[in-house]
Amino acid sequence: MSGPVAAAYAALLAAGELRPDPDQARAAGELDRLGEELALRRGFLARLLSRKRDICGVYLWGGVGRGKSMLMDLAFDEIAVSPKRRVHFHAFMIEVHERLRAERAKGHGDPIPAVAEAIAEGATLLCFDEMVVNNPADAMILSRLFTHLLEEGVAVVTTSNRPPTDLYKDGLNRELFLPFIALIEERLTVLPLDGPTDYRLQRLQGVATWHVPNGPAATAALSEAFFKLTDTVVEDRAKVPSEELAVGGGRSLHVPKSLKGVAVFSFKRLCGEARGAADYLAIAQRFHTVIIVGIPVMGPDKRNEAARFVTLIDALYEHNVKLLAAADAEPAGLYPAGTGAFEFQRTVSRLEEMRSADYLASGHGVAEIGERGPAPPPGRL
């Protein structure tokens, strides 16, 4: 099949930005097929016959750096339908729970149909990056919510590091989640992207992940790494977007630079302000790579900042987030003295592991139990 997504993919191959990959080519064709279904639905006869049930979607899964987000971006850009929306799955679920609370407050009974209808009004094509299910609250509603979305005619394109059968693996009351897996397998085209090339890891080759000391040289190196990881061409480098990241409870966190799953923060913004585990969890779930600048050497007067840094690194580590940083010392010298300095050594160990080839090759998402062995007990500062 030849369509706009396949044509855009072919252009990237011709430009040398990608290598030929049969899985990616097949996915581009399936995304074009979805686009054709949506185009047919806009015709008079299709509307007359109500083809809504035929509009389903594509589920792209595979290891880190296999081109899932790239293909979803091509689909979002090239499929000519309106309205359409691209959103990270974690942010979408925060929004869904807030909508559900608002509907329940009205006292009109089951809130899910009304929420699905409102979402459908704003998106005929809904693109999710990094579907991952970590909590029972999400697991409980997903099957019914997505059933209603598909019945409303919403087409879904989503990416995940895991096949549908591994979503919410070993989760509490997982039997309540199984209908959602069945829904994906029945209504969406499930496509593995399992090619031999880890494009993201390729981009990290030769890139230093820890720069000492802070200063213009470190900032320039991290800026170049950001552009390399996000495939940003020179003429677009002055237009990198920011983001307001929802962290729950109606709060948000400003992300100065956010592009293709890579975020840039200052240490002062992340650890110098009153932040907690919910903020860091939202970051870890939203971004596969985080760049932090301005990490200082911390002493007894900065024990609060050190405690927040420990919580931040725990969240990033547990979600396999790649970390690039500029600091005034190597990890072992960041918090040499002060309350909890001994316990801080666990964070030092994690920072060192996060620079290893094995860690950099790991996929984004919560590590399976036992994947890295039992976690050491958390320290207190």
**What can be said about the biggest beta sheet?**
5 strands, parallel
Distance between the termini: 59 Å
- Total helical elements: 15
Provide the structure class. alpha/beta
Work out the number of β strands: 12
The helicity comes to: 40-55%
Residue fraction in strands? 15-25%
Radius of gyration: 22 Å
Shape: globular
Number of domains: 2
Question: Based on the structure given, which CATH architecture of the largest domain is correct?
Answer: 3-Layer(aba) Sandwich
What is the ordering of alpha helices and beta strands?
HHHEHEHHEHEHEHEHEEEEHHEHEHH
In spatial order, strands of the major sheet run 2-3-4-1-5
Oligomer: single chain
Show unreliable segments. 368-381
The CATH topology assignment of the largest domain is: Rossmann fold
CATH class of the largest domain, anyone? Alpha Beta
- Mean pLDDT metric: 85
Structure description:
Keywords: ATP-binding, Cell cycle, Cell division, Nucleotide-binding. The structure is a single chain. By secondary structure, this protein is an alpha/beta fold. The protein has 2 domains: 4-192, Rossmann fold; 199-360, Rossmann fold (3-Layer(aba) Sandwich), CATH 3.40.50. The chain is 44% helix and 16% strand. It has helices at 4-14, 22-41, 44-49, 68-78, 89-106, 112-122, 136-151, 178-187, 199-204, 216-229, 267-271, 277-286, 303-318, 344-353, 357-360, and strands at residues 57-61, 84-88, 125-129, 155-160, 188-192, 210-211, 243-248, 251-255, 257-259, 262-266, 289-295, 322-327. Strands 2-3-4-1-5 form a 5-stranded parallel sheet. Helix 1 packs antiparallel against helix 2 (22-41), helix 6 (112-122) crosses helix 7 (136-151) and helix 7 (136-151) runs parallel beside helix 8. Residues 368-381 have low confidence and may be disordered.
